[in-house]
Amino acid sequence: MARVLNRRFITFGLVGASGVFVNLGILFALADVLDINKDYSAAAAIEVSIIWNFILNNNLTFRDKNADASVGFLARMLRYNLVGLLGAGVQFGVFKTLTDLAMHTWKLEHPGIWKYPAQLTGIALGMGLNFYTNFFWTWRQKPNSVPPGPLPHGENP
Q1: Is 150 within the bounds of a domain?
Q2: Residue range(s) defining the domain that contains residue 133
Q3: Is residue 155 part of a domain?
Q4: What is the number of domains present in the chain?
Q5: 30-66 pLDDT, tens per residue?
Q6: pLDDT tens-digit readout, 85-143
Q7: pTM greater than the 0.85 cutoff
Q8: 65 domain residue, yes or no
Q9: Pairwise CA distance, residues 43 & 48, whole Å
Q10: Is 151 part of a structural domain of the chain?
């Protein structure tokens, strides 16, 4: 179990890392290229990265749990989004707090470059919350299902 969980967490982290690039790319495009309000840009970047990460996690990280999941694809997507939004609340709260702190501390009109480390800090804090909640709720298995991975002593289900 620990081996599967460890490999799964690493895959989840790699998927999340790809989502960081999606998140920051959307933030850059909206806030810096299109000059959309930083708060709206950050919120949109978070949601796009949640959808991106669900698709990858469903097909890579939790692929072996899909068949015996207690809910279907659309319900998992909804659950993942809800978990992601909870994590996004943490992420956005950290973003807002740190950018406001930077603007107040250094008397800036705009957060400038400080919006990126603020966003990255929020992403990191939301990751642990998202992994464990998704593992135990989004991809929860049906009762009496066989756990993923090889069974001890060559037993068959």
Answers
A1: no
A2: 2-142
A3: no
A4: 1
A5: 999 999 999 999 989 988 998 999 999 999 999 999 9
A6: 898 888 899 999 999 999 999 999 999 999 999 998 998 888 878 998 999 999 999 98
A7: no
A8: yes
A9: 9
A10: no
